[in-house]
Request: fold
Amino acid sequence: MEYKDAYAEIMRMYDKDRIECFHERNRRRDAAYAEIPELEGVDGEIASFAIKAAKYILEHQGDTTSEGIALALLKQRHEEVLKERAELLQKCTLGPNCLDPVYKCPKCQDTGFIENQKCACFQARMIKLNYSSSNLENILQKENFDTFNLKLFSELPFDPNPKPKPDPDPKLDPDPKSKPDPKSKPEPKPNPNEGKDSDLADPSGKKAEDKHLKVPPRKNMKSMYNRCKSFVENFGKGTGDKNLFIHGKAGLGKTFLCSCIAKAILDKEYVVIYNTAPALFDMLSDVRFGKNLERVPPNLRSDMETCDLLILDDLGSEMVTTATNSDLFAILNERLRMNKSTVISSNLNPQEMQAIYTDRIVSRIWGNYARLELYGPDLRYRK
Ligand SMILES: [Zn+2]
Reply:
């Protein structure tokens, strides 16, 4: 969406909000008047004060003393009536503030501006419009914590490196290790204490492999799902995981988890930017080379750095260059510095991350992100 279209769309939203606010206020006013009829008379009197004041000034023109006396009396009556009104409202079952307008944003009273400066709610709407395409909204309707189906995940232990089938003729088998060994079979009943240290898995992958054999994908997924839910519940409270790195091979539900988180945090009215890594780096490259600027949000870089939650889906599927490495580091680093949460999903395992990203990116992620590993059979190939 082009900036001027987004701007017009946002101004329409504010118009709509103010109209809604006005109708809602009238509705509550009518209900309050029905409950306490004296309120209507008091409000009528308050509304008449300005006219009365103007009238007194005209009537007593040139006679400053009597004008002053009249206005002082009017002021005194005005104060009495306001007091009376407040007392009546105390009795109202709708609450003492029921006649005040309820703005979505009290700071700018749903105008989007405070003294000619854009309100924070304006920036938030601009980001939402620029990054939450209607397409994403559709996805979020379908992919959220309520539609998550744990039963899709296998209850059986998962062997990431299944041994080749034994050769029909054992004499021709040069590697005795490939023979089926009943002792090496994973235990069907997993230890309930396993899988609690998923983010502490060592980069060598050995511990991870052990875990795959002991904790079936469904049980692992349940624990990752709960981790994502608690991330959402703790969001903005300064407790729990601040950043998540969700990794595992394709077709295991990483994007689904990202969608669940995006939807839940958007529902909490936070500013969320959700992008796939290729889309993000394409846009950053457009900004660098001054191309397709009409399609790029005008404050892309600062939006990425300042939004409440940045979700970077499928990191590693972009074309990695020195420029993307430098952009990625700058964004992740700035978000850490500003204590902003980030969720990254990736097909890459820790060793692969180390191979394609600079050390400083990898160390930022390992040092500051809870690691959630998904594994199991590819869900796209099962019914
Ligand atoms: Zn505002």
User: Anything to note?
Assistant: The chain has two domains: 3-119, 132-381. Residues 132-381 form a domain with the Rossmann fold fold (CATH 3.40.50.300). The first helix runs from residue 3 to 35.
